[in-house]
Amino acid sequence: MNNHKSWDNGRLVVSETGRFLQHADGTPFFWLGDTAWLILKRTTRDQALIYLRDRKNKGYNVIQIMLVHDLNSANAYGRVPFRDLDLDQPDAELSTSFTSYWSYADEVIDMAEREGLYVALVPVWGSVVEYYSPNAEATERYGEWVGNRYKDRPNVIWLNGGDIRGNDHKDVWLHMGRAIRKAAPDHLMTFHPYGRTQSSTWFHNEDWLDFNMFQSGHRSYDQMDEANPDTLVGEDNWRFVKKDWAEVPAKPTIDGEPSYEGIPHGLHNLEAPRWTADDVRRYAYWAVFAGAFGHTYGHNAVMQFHTEERGVGAYGCTRSWIDALNDDGAKQMVHLKQLFLSRPYEERMPNETAICGDPGYRYDRLFVSLGKSYLMAYTYTGRSITLRLGQFSGKRAAVWWFNPRTGESDSAGVVDNEGTREFVPQAVSAPGNDWVLVLDDVDQGYAAPGLPLSR
What we know:
By secondary structure, this protein is α/β, with parallel strands linked by helices. The chain has helices at 39-42, 45-57, 101-114, 126-132, 136-150, 170-183, 200-203, 238-245, 277-290, 300-303, 321-324, 328-341; strands at 12-14, 21-23, 28-29, 31-35, 62-66, 118-122, 156-164, 189-193, 197-198, 212-215, 253-255, 294-297, 349-350, 366-370, 374-379, 385-388, 396-402, 409-416, 420-423, 435-441.
């Protein structure tokens, strides 16, 4: 049995380029995350293990969790996180007769560690700070306490904030970030912001912010607010990546909350269409091709661990989370990770100059990721792709078509790596009929895209 864990390659650090994450020994790390926001609130230990094993088996390696969703609601064992709604009084008592809130949190983090999964922990959700308005000093003491509690866990990453703008209660987030960094200096940290905002707006130059995170959110193009330029991004989550890549100094960035599978467009109109596997796939490929160091997936039922006995849950959810674990989008995310790790990972760079003409508008937009010995191009609609060749090594290029829905690759021969050439997928062009064109320097002898990197 292979008991190797990711952190056996050393702790996670930012690469020298400032664009990606890697292990201390140089092994690249592709973040494939899932949002399990309410796992500590809604699950028993048996249910938590079912979830964690499922996500491990589907190729995920990071689970995003709220440590504290609110102060006064109990977990599945009837325990609340704090006594008297006081951040200075964590309910962490050990007892043989009951499971405290924090001892259960310890168990879940331990289970994730045994499964080889990182946990990206939100210390306290933004709505708690908005509603209870704890002062910065109390938050700092809590940050020091929780940072010390988990400082020796090899699988912990910190998500300061929690669905909130960084300028709301900014002192709280600054004190929280600094306290956790002081207590747990070996853990990476970012800030999980409000929808359609990004951490770099407020905290890019903070020492505790190792990488940026944005929440592209759940709105469709049709739901953009024309009067508010900040919302005009719509579904173009790649624009957040492009903005973060322009920041100095360079820091990695990731979409920590795009549109969830099975959630209504815009969240609150339950009559609106729901995001599908095609949509969540598009968000993932657009972000990573634009330069994100990985991606986080989410599902409406899974993130809130909804059960049918609860009736109608948040955002009109009626699905059982157990059933939703196997939705198409959840199963397809691993193909993206396997694709990028099948080629030299940290040399890749977004490159629009390889595209002949206009990259395209909205769903028709093309994306190119360029390495020293390969090129990948993504089309969500299966449109033709015309490229300027000769931008990577080799006189001849092996041509592949990679299917994001299945993870399978088909060889399409060899071409001269020069001049301009049009590549056409063997399929009808339509939204959701997405393809990745992969061109390799023939002399490198790479295996088919999606297979482990070999020469």
